[in-house]
Amino acid sequence: MKKLALLLIPALLLLNSCRDQEETQGADVSVPVRVAEIVKKPIFNTLDINGTVSPTGSIELLTEAEGMYQLEANSITGKSLKMGDKVKAGDVLITLHNPEYELSIRIEAKKLDLENAKQEYEKQQSLYDKGGVTLRELQNAELGYINAKYDFENAELQMQKLKVVAPFDGVIVDLLYFTRNVKAPSGTKAVKIMDYSTLILNAEFPEKFINTVKLGQEAFVTNYNLKDDTLTAIITELSPAINEATRTFKGVMKVKNKDLKMRPGMFVKAEIIVEKRDSAFVIDREVIQNKRRGKVVFVVERNTAVEKRINTGIETDDEVEILSGLQSGEKLVIEGFEMLSNRTKVKVQK
Question: Residue 263: which CATH number?
Fold first, then answer.
């Protein structure tokens, strides 16, 4: 019996040692992973288009009469206008002084003729109501008043030719400088104004997107010189015809440029939102594994990796919409998933 006991003791010690080793090995099998909680957020897919933006309004103003050139002052700064200044519709930008021209128009005399003709017409009308004059005399007075009015208005139009006036709100992008009181000839290109508070982007869309690109779709517009400034745009026009040579169709986008950060002539990239979800389960594309039975990801339940088969929707370069297979609040494995299989023990790292 003593011999048997002596033989059993080493065996029991060896068995316990094996069990400890197995437990240690079992503990070592836990794969370290990092997780993220599944929540809903927006996701959208885009079609990228490149092009050059142009202003919605652009005009080159010419002098319409000969005269001594005088550049007017900026109504805000009080200094002479210069390139880059903002102007409003109706602002006088340049005045031409030409005494000989002004005398030939005789605007003061025509103004006085108008006042006299108006008084005469009103007098004749009063007399006609009392039976003091004939209808013919009243009509002659009215005709004299109308002609005097036309003559005065024509004189005003002629005088207006001595001024270069902004026809719309915009920015001076080019300005011809003359020495003050130097005579500028008629037809001189004086100033160029652009309105680019809204920009136009003419685009060519590939034929395969004929049923995807629609009126009213939004776009994000960027320029490599303005990396931190992204503007929004709307598709306002679409051609139904396909260009046989390029297999594209035309479209027009209006870019909102309220702060004038983007400039006319810039080469830009427009990312058109062709698919959008305001609230969806969205995960990183890289955590999805393609297996024989479909796309799968891993979630952690009680320190165990559980394989989940998923169905996907909108896909971007970095993210994927999950249509089914995951629920809000589940812990998605975002690091260490490469080493996992279903029911693998894991240790969540912070």
Answer: 2.40.30.170
Residues 309 and 257 in one domain: no
- DSSP letter for each residue of 124-164: HHHHHHTTSS-HHHHHHHHHHHHHHHHHHHHHHHHHHTTEE
Domain that holds residue 136: 69-191
From 232, 255, 278, give the residue that closes a domain: 278
pLDDT tens string, the chain, 350 residues long: the values are: 444 444 444 444 454 554 544 444 444 578 999 999 999 999 988 889 999 999 999 999 999 999 999 999 998 888 999 999 999 999 999 999 999 999 999 999 999 999 999 999 999 999 999 988 999 999 999 999 999 999 999 999 999 999 999 999 999 999 988 887 788 999 999 999 999 999 999 999 999 999 989 999 999 999 988 878 899 999 999 999 999 999 999 999 999 999 999 999 999 999 998 888 899 999 999 999 998 889 999 999 999 999 999 999 998 889 999 999 999 999 999 999 999 999 999 999 98
Domain edge (last residue) among 158, 191, 224 = 191
Q: Provide the whole-model pTM.
A: 0.70
Residue 289 sits in the same domain as residue 322: yes
190: closest CA among 94, 83, 67? 94
- Paired with 46 in beta bridges are 273
From the list 142, 135, 89, the residue with the least C-alpha distance to 119 is 142
Which tokens sit at 44? 């959208």
- Please report which helix (H) or strand (E) contains residue 112, including its range: helix 107-129
Q: Return left, alpha or beta for 265; rule: phi > 0 is left, psi -120 to 50 is alpha, else beta.
A: left
What is the Cα–Cα distance from 83 to 193, expressed in whole angstroms? Answer: 9
Element at 313 (helix H, strand E): strand 311-315
